[in-house]
């Protein structure tokens, strides 16, 4: 497990961009954390790191947002998703092959996520500090660890 703490939205976005830089099609980042933990802030950074120019907003009402890019990017918010079937019906699996995917509230749809997903649990330390616990059976782990040591 990699544990990182940030003390502002900007630092969280920076952490996201470090991760986003290395995402390729089929990579899934699974975010878990309560309301206001910083899932969308991290996602914004990830999109930035991937070179996505558009401003990323939470897809709470649309479930899935798609962004064009060298590597296409898909942002899922499972907060209002009632079942894994509902996300499947929204076309989730069709994106997995060609896109990098970030899922907020990933624990609600975990049976749809690949075993190689990169999991990030986010915990509030206090009003401005957040702890990110990053884990998973993916080559991204060692790549991110190496990159974080250089930052
Ligand atoms: N270190 C930090 N990193 C990120 N956000 C922080 C941090 N400190 C405070 N915040 C605040 O926490 C909130 C994070 O909001 P964000 O929308 O990213 O959370 P979320 O996990 O996506 O919530 P939701 O479950 O509603 O989608 C913002 O209001 C932000 O200002
Ligand atoms: Mg959010």
TrEMBL record:
<keyword id="KW-0479">Metal-binding</keyword>
<dbReference type="GO" id="GO:0005524">
    <property type="term" value="F:ATP binding"/>
</dbReference>
<dbReference type="InterPro" id="IPR003442">
    <property type="entry name" value="T6A_TsaE"/>
</dbReference>
<keyword id="KW-0547">Nucleotide-binding</keyword>
<comment type="similarity">
    <text>Belongs to the TsaE family.</text>
</comment>
<keyword id="KW-0067">ATP-binding</keyword>
<protein>
    <recommendedName>
        <fullName>tRNA threonylcarbamoyladenosine biosynthesis protein TsaE</fullName>
    </recommendedName>
</protein>
<dbReference type="GO" id="GO:0046872">
    <property type="term" value="F:metal ion binding"/>
</dbReference>
<keyword id="KW-0819">tRNA processing</keyword>
<keyword id="KW-0963">Cytoplasm</keyword>
<dbReference type="InterPro" id="IPR027417">
    <property type="entry name" value="P-loop_NTPase"/>
</dbReference>
<dbReference type="Pfam" id="PF02367">
    <property type="entry name" value="TsaE"/>
</dbReference>
<dbReference type="GO" id="GO:0002949">
    <property type="term" value="P:tRNA threonylcarbamoyladenosine modification"/>
</dbReference>
<keyword id="KW-0460">Magnesium</keyword>
<dbReference type="GO" id="GO:0005737">
    <property type="term" value="C:cytoplasm"/>
</dbReference>
């Amino acid at each position: 497990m990699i544990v990182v703490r940030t003390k502002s939205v900007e630092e969280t976005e920076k952490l996201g961009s470090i991760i986003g830089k290395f995402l390729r099609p089929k990579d899934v980042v699974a975010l878990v954390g309560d309301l206001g933990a910083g899932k969308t802030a991290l996602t914004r950074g990830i999109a930035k790191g991937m070179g996505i120019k558009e401003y990323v907003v939470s897809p709470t009402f649309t479930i899935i947002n798609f962004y064009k890019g060298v590597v296409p990017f898909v942002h899922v918010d499972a907060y209002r998703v009632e079942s894994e079937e509902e996300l499947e019906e929204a076309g989730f699996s069709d994106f997995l092959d060609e896109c990098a995917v970030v899922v907020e509230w990933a624990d609600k749809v975990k049976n749809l996520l690949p075993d190689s997903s990169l999991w990030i649990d986010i915990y509030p330390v206090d009003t401005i500090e957040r702890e990110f616990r990053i884990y998973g059976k993916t080559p991204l782990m060692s790549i991110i660890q190496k990159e974080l040591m250089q930052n």
